[in-house]
Specification:
Strand order of the largest sheet: 1-8-2-3-7-4-6-5-9-10
Shape: globular
Radius of gyration: 19 Å
Largest sheet: 10 strands, mixed
CATH class of the largest domain: Alpha Beta
CATH architecture of the largest domain: Alpha-Beta Complex
Helix content: 25-40%
Strand content: 15-25%
Number of helices: 9
CATH topology of the largest domain: DHBP synthase
Oligomer: single chain
Order of helices and strands: EHEEHEHHEEHEHEEEHEEEHEH
Distance between the termini: 36 Å
CATH superfamily of the largest domain: DHBP synthase
Structural class: alpha/beta
Bound molecules: threonylcarbamoyladenylate, magnesium ion
């Protein structure tokens, strides 16, 4: 694989968009901002490029990728939309929602990207840089989060450079992302299923559909070979430091990931303190989550202790990512 290759970092703008489209057309790898997290893009129709992408991330090949497109017309060429899927697409695209749908008969997305499933995950991102790149390239782009597999997702270009510098061709720097957690994934099967909580709150989706989203069965989250949402491996969004949840008091040498202004005993002896949102705002907390986890991970703390975070709105996605970060480390 192309490790040792020089990674170009360009500020977002016309030149960067043109360069990104060229690199994608040549089968290369481009990291770019979306409104959720930075993605690592490859031509979704080019199996060799996708193989490089899996290698660059160190990602298990059974974990399929999301195809990003610029508009609904392009989405309908690769997936079969029923009434519910169309309703969600019209309500929330472009935006932080991914739909898992049956593949269309002539779906151009390479089998390697869908891990041999007969479904395809599709998203129209809202970030202007992502949309410009998709329009300039003109084909679907598969883009997982632009981090090494198992690491925390990147929310600024420097995170991408730390993880993937020397392994990919280009990083387009569009500053900090707005949402900060990955897209919400809904599977449109007999009944819609919430496959991954994310940047679009569950309640918004349920309001549009007029029904309660089903949850994947419990064992879909295990490390089995064929989980329902194959990326839902139990331990996934992981800093190196141990993570302890629902902390109300600190042990000496622990770092604190705070939320709000509730008192925490033992805070005087904290190795470090970062607050996701002093005013207790869950959207702000989501935007800060991965950056704060990365920052605390470098503080040589014994453990990152995390204060309780409410489960409503984006809190469901935040708590999901924190539980995964804590698995096997408590
Ligand atoms: O916000 C996001 O979704 C970001 C940005 C870059 O768009 N992308 C992202 O991709 O989070 P990734 O690869 O880190 O997560 C994609 C998830 C994985 O959990 C994968 O298993 C699931 O989507 N997935 C993809 N195709 C699927 C399919 N056909 N059926 C079920 N799950 C699927
Ligand atoms: Mg990821």
């Amino acid at each position: 694989m192309k490790i040792g290759l020089k990674t170009l970092l360009l500020p977002a703008g016309e030149a960067a968009v043109a360069a990104a489209a060229r690199v994608l057309a040549d089968g290369g790898l481009v990291a770019f901002p979306t409104e959720t997290v930075y993605g690592l893009g490859a031509d979704a129709t080019n199996a060799a490029a996708i193989a490089h992408l899996y290698q660059a991330k160190g990602r298990p090949a059974f974990n399929p990728l999301i195809a990003h497109v610029s508009d609904l017309g392009a989405a309908r060429k690769i997936g079969r939309f029923d009434a519910a899927a169309l309703q969600l697409a019209e309500a929330f695209w472009p935006g932080p929602l991914t739909l898992v749908l049956p593949k269309s008969a002539d779906c151009a997305v390479a089998d390697l990207a869908t891990a041999g499933l007969d479904t395809v995950a599709i998203r129209i991102p809202a970030h202007p840089v992502a949309r410009d790149i998709l329009r300039a390239f003109g084909r679907p782009v598969v883009a997982p989060s632009a981090n090494l597999s198992g690491h925390v997702s990147p929310t600024i270009a420097a995170h991408v450079l730390n993880d993937l510098g020397g392994r990919i061709d280009l990083i387009v720097d569009g500053g900090a992302v707005a949402v900060g957690v990955e897209s919400t994934i809904v599977g449109i099967f007999d009944q819609p299923i919430l496959l991954r909580p994310g940047g679009l709150p569950r309640a918004d989706i349920e309001r549009v559909l007029g029904l309660t989203l089903r949850q994947p069965p419990e064992d879909a989250e295990s490390d089995s070979d064929q989980p329902l949402a194959p990326g839902m491996l139990a331990s996934h969004y992981a800093p190196r430091t141990k993570v302890r949840l629902n902390a109300m008091r600190l042990e000496p040498g622990e770092a604190l990931l705070a939320f709000g202004t509730d008192a925490v005993s033992g805070i005087e002896a904290a190795a470090a303190v970062m607050n996701l949102s002093v005013r207790g705002d869950l959207d702000e907390a989501a935007a800060n989550l991965f950056g704060h986890l990365r920052a605390l991970d470098t503080r040589a703390a014994r453990t990152i202790a995390v204060m309780p975070i409410p489960d409503d709105g984006l809190g469901e996605a935040i708590n999901d990512r924190l539980r995964r970060a804590a698995v096997g480390r408590e």
